[in-house]
Task: structure prediction
Amino acid sequence: MPVKKTAPQEKPGQAGAERARFAANRRKAAPSSPNTENTESTAQPLQAVVGMVASAGGLEAFKQFFQAMPADSGIAFVLIPHLDPKHESLMAPLLDKQTAMPVVEARDGQRLEADHVYVIPPNHHLTLHKGVIQLSAPPDRGAGQTAIDPFLCSLAADQQERAICIILSGTGTGSHGSLGLKAVKAEGGMAMVQEPSSAEYNGMPLSAIDAGLADYVLPPGQMPEELLKYVQHFVAPAAVVINRRYEALQSAIEKLSTVNSQLRDKVDELENSNNDMTNLLASVDNATLFLGVDRTIQRFTLSATRLFNLIATDVGRPIDHITARFEDPELSRDIDRVLQILAPCEREVSRGGEQWFLRRITPYRIADNRIGGVVLSLTDITQIKRAELELRDLTAHLEQRVSENSAQLQHERNFIDAIVNTVGAMILVIDTEERLVRFNTACNTTTGYDFAEFQGSSKWQNLIPADEQDGVRRVNDRLRSGEDHIRHENHWLHRDGSMRLISWCNSALRDEAGQVQHIICTGIDITEQRHAENRARETLEEASRLQRLQTANELATLLAHELNQPLAAIATYAETGKQLLRHMPLDHDRLAANLERISQQSLRAGEAIRHLRAFVGRGRIDPVPTDLNAVARSTCTLMAPKARARGVDIALDLTTLPPVLAVDVHIEQVLLNLLRNAIDAIRDANMSSGSITVTTRRFEDMAQVSVIDSGPGIDAAVADKVFEPLASHKEYGLGVGLRISRSLIEAHGGRLWVEPHIPGGIFHFVLPFAP
Result:
């Protein structure tokens, strides 16, 4: 078929007559319905499928085409524009206004119908199989790949000679339509191409024309006429008639139902968002107005009614129609400026010179980072402004006084100098180059130097030890960087060679622009104070050492009691060994085991003594990571014979714990004391039997050990006194065991306490975990 490079010249009315003849022929080809009088419309058989592809500039070409295309041609149209994959497409609603045919966004599994227009959805590929739309995710290819050629190839394979390809405006080369064009022509279909001079972008049309396969080259508005002629002459007309109005009505009902459901969801979302916004605005004290891009009021806070003459019905009115109760001649111009440059704008405005506000206008950003208007807010800064004005007036007044009477200023300066010189603290004023500007007499008396010789220079820094000068410079740098006040200490050299410790408070003096002009340094000689503190600390340490000696005396008493058990065990094992030696032949294994037990008890006694000496000598312990459960097991094993002899059962309820930081001998001594006290409490209550449970748990980021017995218990009145010296009423007790046990636990950084409970005594102690 020859290529028509331009539209043919026709007589007026020729195109309309051609469309009328085409519609008449199709009506003749359609069989009559048995009930034609009651049938409002009939569905047309599908004559052909037109694939229309475009990229840049395609929307205008589509509009021109469908404005000229009749709605009853029997043709299905599938549109493949180049859409942004990240945004919702408006192509279908825009084209729906240009034609009486239904224009819908294509759905997966949808069968093509005559006189319908289908638009590919964003971020999808569309293909045809037996007249049914198939949607799929686009493959991960280069940025230049589009859905155009894959669709045209599937159109050609599916519709063959009924396939018609129309290539419209767009950029690109052979990969944007030309490949699909070749496939359509190879299957016997027809191809139309937009005349390049009528296209906004002629890249795709030129590429298709260069392929030499275009049947028609026409502007979009002239294509429908040639398309109708082609379908009438070369594509067999359909013969099946269906009720098109009924189908259109059904389709419209389905679409309206879907849209109605979506609208209900959107209304719910909008209502929730509106409630959130209403509550937020009600909680904001600032006057705030939301304006649209057309400068109309969209929403405002209650506080805004105090500054604008606003009522509820003013929503939708331009802000320029609303009277403001403050002076702001630049408001309108600033709103325009923010809408143009999309940057915030701030300005101070007043209300009769009595009330001041910081007026701020910011862009109002909506979905997709688009600008939906501006937010206008006013914050009351009256107090700040008044203070600022008062400070400015005071400064102006002082400047006036300086200019009017320099002698008075000098007098005041002398007066200030006199006051400064009576202050016992050192006062230095230095400039930004750390040159000495002013000083008082305390500087001379504190250092023994005449600071007049340092005036105008930075040599005063030579009085600071060399290893501390960098620290002083860093303090001054921090003040110059914006800090207001800094306290620090450093040494100064006295003329007699001694070193003086000075406590400084430094501050920055700034000008109106906020630039540091001077640094004021106020220092107090704390040398003697620090010496007194050191002496007091030494005295306190000596008192602490004496206290430890007293505690050690008590601890030695307890330790003597604690050593009774290993010594008694050693004596028992030794007597057993002697008996083994008298029997022949010798039982070497039992004898060796007996000697091993003697050795273990000796080491245990020696370890207790060594840790006691360390605690008394240094006032501290050397804890190491320790398995608390292992200590609990070994201690209970040690006390088991005594407990059984008294009819007392010892049970363990242990939780897996990380290692604690402890000295195992000290913890064993504390547990032994608690277990022994529990056994004695059960015995003294004349109970024939009893039980003791030792538990371990994690408690407030520490390990907790609890000793719980079935004895008579301890009430709240007695619980406060059990850790006092001589609190015990046991016949052979010294009354210091619990007190020393608590000292040992506290030396580990832990805590030992009793839980009042009747019946049954409960003691707890906690230890820190090892790092």
Observations:
- The longest helix spans residues 527-582.
- Residues 1-17, 22-41, 238-243, 731-735 have pLDDT under 50 and may be disordered.
